[in-house]
């Protein structure tokens, strides 16, 4: 009786099995059929919890990026403040060096001039010493030796510091180096437009004129002023 019941159930299930294609050779439903897998997949999807990992990872990445940017901003701010402080220190040191150069820039020149002053003082002392009455020759000799020594020393100091006396006699008149005092008639061997006489010497410091030479310029007789 049980066998008859099973055969009856099989006959009723056979059309359904044939339409789905999920039966085996004996007409039973295959456990790994497509219908079974689809049904199982739908059941699993319906029972899975919602995906909450995506937004959490994105928020965490944004927070890490924000922290990194904040550290970079702090580092750049510190560097900027240090650069400003270093620039201010350099400006102060430079200003102090400029002020010292203005005050002590001629220190070496003054030190050499002190030696010239010593020679002049010694010469004065020698002249002021008591000499025999009427012995003017000895006094003049002391004055001459002292002045000669003083001139030699002074020229040495000038040459050491780049101070040069101009000797423009015979040179063409240059308004950048010469100050015209007057015109004089050109003599024998003197070209018109050249310096014939120097009234006061001019000086150059390292090639730059610091005092013009006062000169008389030769001209032809009909152009004499």
TrEMBL record:
Keywords: Acetylation, Chaperone, Coiled coil, Mitochondrion, Transit peptide. Its main location: mitochondrion. GO terms for cellular component: PAM complex, Tim23 associated import motor. One of its GO terms (biological process) is protein import into mitochondrial matrix. InterPro entries: GrpE, GrpE_CC, GrpE_head. It comes from the Eukaryota. It is found in: Mitochondrion matrix. GO terms for molecular function: adenyl-nucleotide exchange factor activity; protein homodimerization activity; protein-folding chaperone binding; unfolded protein binding. SUPFAM superfamilies: Coiled-coil domain of nucleotide exchange factor GrpE (SSF58014), Head domain of nucleotide exchange factor GrpE (SSF51064). Belongs to the GrpE family. Probable component of the PAM complex at least composed of a mitochondrial HSP70 protein, GRPEL1 or GRPEL2, TIMM44, TIMM16/PAM16 and TIMM14/DNAJC19. Essential component of the PAM complex, a complex required for the translocation of transit peptide-containing proteins from the inner membrane into the mitochondrial matrix in an ATP-dependent manner. Seems to control the nucleotide-dependent binding of mitochondrial HSP70 to substrate proteins. Stimulates ATPase activity of mt-HSP70. May also serve to modulate the interconversion of oligomeric (inactive) and monomeric (active) forms of mt-HSP70. PANTHER family: GRPE PROTEIN, GRPE PROTEIN HOMOLOG 2, MITOCHONDRIAL. This is GrpE protein homolog. It comes from Physeter macrocephalus (Sperm whale).
